[in-house]
Amino acid sequence: MSKILILGAGISGHVAASHLRRKLSKEHEVVVVSPNSNYQWIPSNIWVGIGRMKSKEILFPLAPLYKKKGIGYKQAKAISFFPEGDKNQPKPYVLSEYVAGDKKGQQEKITYDYLINATGPKLNFEATEGLIPGENRTYSVCTYSHADHAWHGLKALIDEMKTGKKVKILIGTGHGSSTCQGAAFEYILNVEQELRRHKVREMAEITWISNEHKLGDFGMDGMLLSYGSMTLKSYEMVEMIFEDRGIKWILGAGVNKIEDGIAHYENLEGSYKTETYDFAMLIPAFSGHGFKAFDKNENDITEKLFKGFMIVDADYTPKPYEEWSVKDWPETYQNPTYQNIFAPGIAFAPPHAISKPRKSKNGTVISPAPPRTGMPSGITAKLVADNIIDTIKSGKESLSHKGSLGNMGAACIASAGYGLTQGSGVSITTYPIVPDYEKYPNTQGRKLGKTFGEIGLAGHWLKLALHYAFIYKAKMRPFWWLIPE
Amino acid sequence: MTQRISKYQRFKMMNPIIQFFKFIYLSLKIMFVVASGHGGTRVEKK
Ligand SMILES: Cc1cc2nc3c(=O)[nH]c(=O)nc-3n(C[C@H](O)[C@H](O)[C@H](O)COP(=O)(O)OP(=O)(O)OC[C@H]3O[C@@H](n4cnc5c(N)ncnc54)[C@H](O)[C@@H]3O)c2cc1C
After folding, report:
1. Secondary-structure class of domain A3-123+288-394 per CATH
2. Which ipTM score applies to this complex?
């Protein structure tokens, strides 16, 4: 019998746990360790942040589901990794600490035969001085509790606007190397639409601030896409939307400090500037969790497992942008030193960015880190689970399931406003996620027919349909596995 | 504010009947992108 330990119950951890449990017989143990007792469908946080959904609609408690399905669950957080065990424990284990219940504060060595690290990112607010969700009039929508806070802040602002106050709203990235521009893009369009719904739009100046050098970069080097009968660059599409909605923009901005109502930033020209605001939603930098790893003699071997995020089968040789290749990206998410350890979703260390790296004239890095959205997080988690299942069943290592971001498509349905008849969405699909300039040299590394954009009400319905479908799937309701990642 | 999306385009974007068909079309097109699979990049096809 084998024991598979999964750290994290976000999109990738939960997908891996559910597929492992479905396909492995009960003699094998599947255990999930995660500090948050709830599963949350993060993409719908945008709607929590504008008060159109309650946070309880996007989450459910994990413990009852895992109990029913025969998945072990510990509400704890991983602290350090012992992939060879130690002097007293011959099996590999993860030292974890309980965060709730009777065992709160207690540490446990949780052993495993296979380990899936699906701990996603650390939301590194500390990297930007003063960027604290709910303080200095800045908010976040990265978790459901942050999104709840954001809605309270926005609601109070709307009330003030109704009494005649003119305000400034700033939305975008809160650090020179933030990622997840897509989430901020959705939020700015949703906020703009809500202000119109509340009939206070003319009272607000709305500004997009971002570390992208061009609109529509999204940390993916932008894209060339089919839009109706035209071929557009993503910056042209986003520019059209922003101009049409009266949204201003500041680009190439590395926000480095927040004071109450003032965002300090440096731009690519090397100038230091400020932007004032009454309400801001700024995505922080994402980083690894700072885990440590030790061998059986308790020597520090962190550099064998982590490079910020977890080291997997990528080519991490430092190279200039011109030499980056789609082949640098991992295919199986297996750690090269310890072959029973895997890291799907956001937890793996990318070989490099996707967008061309840029520095300000003062040498500050101001360019987006590579985004890893929900769909690739789910797909990579499933392929890791499938490889472990094949290995267990065949008794020898099997890595036949592969999924490089350079050979995988992604759909991103960005909400542009909520409402069954008034809503809107920007539907974008990209293939491949990481541009393959060898295969598609004339279309910016992507296949045109599979890289397309659409704007309209259907996009909102699609995003809403995905919300219900993915929560159904996550709850492991009948035939959940027929819904693709 | 600069009107970049014409009234006719906006009508098409927000008309529930047109958008219903667009919804079906987009769902299929997205399924096609997703279902067309994924794989490695390193092994050269023979
Ligand atoms: C506001 C917002 C909107 C988004 N919208 C979209 C969208 O529309 N479409 C899309 O495709 N993607 C979207 N994304 C991105 C998507 O949410 C991520 O790609 C996805 O959540 C990544 O999954 P993950 O499992 O790797 O990480 P996460 O979902 O972050 O999960 C990490 C898990 O690890 C747990 N954990 C953390 N620390 C520890 C520890 N020490 N020990 C054990 N467990 C730990 C956490 O509690 C969590 O359960 C959005 C992201 C944000 C923030």
Report:
1. alpha beta
2. 0.91
